[in-house]
Amino acid sequence: MSNPGVIQYIATKLEEQASNAWSFRHLKFQGLISIPQKIARTYGFNDIHVIIHENGSIDIDGVIYKNTISKSGYASAQEAVIQIYEHLIYIDQNYLRLCEDPENYVEQGFMNRLRRIFG
Question: What is the pTM for the complete model shown?
Fold first, then answer.
C-alpha cells in the first residue's frame, strides 16, 4: 500500500469525511497540521494526531491514546479510512476514561526507533 496514489486517496478521504461527515463530541478536526521533525502528513483532532506515512502505515498518536495501522492491516484505501474513523470514534466515546488512564498499543521499541531515525 505504499503507492502514492493510495496515500493521496487516504488523505483526501480523511479530509472530506472529517470536515463534512464525522461528528465527535470531544475531538475537533483541525486539518493538516505541521509538526516539527515530522515528514509525514499529519492531521489534527485536538490532542490526537493521525499521521499518514509514505510507506502506507498510519499512526493514531496522542497523549491519551497511541495505536498504529500497519500497511498490511488494510486491504484498500477505503478500509484504511474506515479504520481511522473507528479509532477516532473509540477515542471520542472513551475520552474521559482515556484522560485518566491512557492506552498505548504501540510497541515501546517502535517509538524509540522513530526517534533515532527522525530525531
Answer: 0.84
How many CA within 13 A on the CB side of residue 74?
A: 23
Write out the E strands in the chain.
Answer: 29-33, 41-45, 48-52, 58-62, 65-69, 103-104
Gap between the Cα atoms of 80 and 36, Å rounded: 25
From CA 52, how far away is CA 93, in angstroms rounded? 23
Cross-strand partners of 33: 42
CA 37 centroid distance within chain: 17
The three three-digit cell numbers of residue 99, written as one number: 484522560
Q: Which residues pair with 32 in a beta bridge?
A: 43
At 27, list the grid cell: 475531538
Distant-in-sequence, close-in-space partners of 83: CB < 8 Å, separation ≥ 6: 58, 69, 73, 74
Q: Per-residue pLDDT tens for 108-117?
A: 555 556 565 6
Helix (H, G, I), strand (E, B) or coil at 30: strand
Other CB atoms within 10 Å distance of the CB of residue 6? 16
